[in-house]
Write the structure tokens for this entry.
Amino acid sequence: MAEQDYVRFGGNTSCILITFENGRVAILDAGTGIRKLGHDFAARSIEQYDQIFVGLSHTHWDHIQGFPFFEPAYDPKRRFTISIYREGQTTGDLESIFATQMQRHYFPVSLDKMGATLQFWQTDLSSFTAPSGVEVRASKHNHPGDAYGYRITEGNTTLVYCTDVEHAGGIDPKVVAFARNTDLLIHDAQYTPDELRDKKGWGHSSWEQAIEVAMQAGAKKLALFHHDPEHNDAFLMKVEKECQRLFSEAFLAREGLEVEV
Ligand SMILES: [Zn+2]
Ligand SMILES: [Zn+2]
């Protein structure tokens, strides 16, 4: 497969920018997509300097690896709050995980020399209201080493981010309850139903399961997320058509896609 087979959906790993009605922004996950998001910060003149929230689903490489390449984190005027839900001690110390991936064996600049103020925050996000009025709820789901979903509500609008989730033994009712009536559900859809049979224990879902969750939960829109890197554009376009046949408001997430909810 050639490189040009991967241009439509893109090959970067998980990273999402949320722009709230109140004009503030927040980021979910810091995969390789955050490098380009850094350029967007400049291009869109995002003037938010305080408390830019970076919420992490978990700390597997594909969700933190882009951070050393995130230009706004080199801007001494910016302050980031890098956060993950703390339920028990399942995630290690977040700051040391970020510092480790920037040790000199791996990267030329250490975390403490980046420039921006980085605050690491591991707290109970099972129910949290930000000063801006945005509500955040986090929930642990099944993934090797654990991962967390986030339900974010501003006014009457809700977004649910639920990636790196494996529905072991049927659709997880906890995930369905978490996504109940959301305006937009972003759900893991790494595998085809066939592939999923051989990938038990890998921590991901099939697109069919993502649709099932969206339908059971009454989600209004579904973004199928976290595509398998082996799936090229032509293949994913076929998957998208099939998904839309089952759930008309389903679409495949792709690089740079903007969705209004
Ligand atoms: Zn993972
Ligand atoms: Zn992942």
Notes: Residues 14, 60, 62-63, 164, 226 surround zinc ion (ligand 2) (CB under 6 Å). Residues 149 and 162 are 5 Å apart (CA to CA).
